[in-house]
Amino acid sequence: MFETMQAAPKDKILALMAQYREDPRPHKIDLGVGVYKDEAGDTTVMRAIRAAEKRLHEAQDTKTYVGPQGDKAFCDEMGRLVLGDAVPSERLRICQAPGGSGALSILAMMLHRAHPNATLWLSDPSWPNHIPLLTTAGLKTQSYPYYDATTGSILFAEMLEALNTAQPGDILLLHGCCHNPTGADLNIDQWKAVADLCVEKQLVPFVDFAYLGFGDGLDHDTAGLRLLAGAVPEMVIAVSCSKNFAVYRDRVGAAILIARNSAEADAAFSHLLSVTRSVYSMPPDHGAAVVRLVLTDPELQADWQQELEEMRIRMETLRREFSDALRRASNSDRFDFIAGQKGMFSRLGLTSEQVDRLREEHGIYAVADSRINIAGLPGDRLDDVARAIVAIMD
């Protein structure tokens, strides 16, 4: 059976991780992998998560299945965290999922069942796993312009122009705050324009939302998404807890479905649960139970919010100081856009050859499109990193 199979292409980011691990240079820097790192370069367990795990260990008396929907209390808390009161509860259904990618996958499969001929519109650029994940679900994709690498800004007029050619029932994949790999976010006026377009063109928004709290704070970071949810009749949201709760390996996510009314929500949700049953049957429980404990205990929730805010401020400070270091090293404003962007990621605007030189000559690892993880920057070596970047641009 397997004699005709050729090895699948290697995942470039995973290959980069392996290359970094094997690099013997003591001052190497990893800016490629998308995980939050503290000042010491570590991705630690958050205080509230550790405390909640201890409580769960002491109180949990069974490991039996919780059902295809997962932990209902977790789902309710995720709905409140993401949407607040933007959508009436009778139109809202939520299913626990194995991470944000799991939520994306099951929502995509459900949408394909609902409208097999729909086109899913995807930003250029987007994440490498989006197209294989979405096309595996059966959806056909079409890209829309999003980012100008020369200016570090959003091509919003071009984005709207492209989306004006979409057909009723098409699906529009949008990135929540800090989610696009460029670090460039829609502002609230642009969210409003997108909402108006979705209503006018009868498009179904599909929001990928993994970095809540990394932009301007929990309340502000949901503003555009909540505006959109309150404007459109139908919408789906894939939520990840990996980053803002730092539970990466526990695979904690939620698939949120918004329908026109309760009856349609029930029908669509039955298909979403049918998809989960056919793919992985039951979601993993541990991480979701821990997040639920954090969100339902006032003391744990307050501590989580405080630590999340510390992470956000650190990244914001790194952005500003790195932008200043690049200005000093380059004697130009070429990289000033970095300070105005949000979250963990920015694109430096380098060629793949320059990225290779950065790795080979200076031990600084970034992905080929020059996306870097801001949280991976060493705060005490920003001038060194900036000088290395300028050096490979000559």
Summarize this entry quickly:
The chain has helices at about 10-20, 45-60, 70-85, 100-115, 130-135, 155-165, 190-200, 220, 225-230, 260-280, 285-295, 300-330, 335-340, 350-360, 380-390; strands at about 30, 90-95, 120-125, 140-145, 145-150, 155, 170-175, 205-210, 235-240, 255-260, 345, 365, 370-375. With about 400 residues, the protein is α/β, with parallel strands linked by helices. It has two domains: about 10-45 and about 300-390, Alpha-Beta Complex (Aspartate Aminotransferase, domain 1), CATH 3.90.1150; about 65-295, Aspartate Aminotransferase, domain 2 (3-Layer(aba) Sandwich), CATH 3.40.640.
What does the model show?
The structure is a single chain. The chain is of the alpha/beta class. It folds into two domains: 12-44 and 301-392, Aspartate Aminotransferase, domain 1 (Alpha-Beta Complex), CATH 3.90.1150; 67-296, Aspartate Aminotransferase, domain 2 (3-Layer(aba) Sandwich). It has 15 helices and 13 strands. It has helices spanning 12-22, 47-59, 72-83, 99-114, 130-136, 156-163, 188-201, 218-221, 223-231, 262-279, 286-296, 298-330, 337-340, 352-362, 382-392, and strands at 29-30, 92-97, 119-124, 140-145, 147-148, 153-154, 171-175, 204-209, 235-240, 253-258, 345-347, 364-365, 371-373. Helix 5 (130-136) links the parallel strand 3 and strand 4. Helix 2 packs across helix 11, helix 2 runs antiparallel to helix 12 (298-330) and helix 3 crosses helix 11. The longest helix is centred in the C-terminal third of the chain and has 33 residues, at 298-330. The protein starts with 11 loop residues before the first helix and ends with a helix.
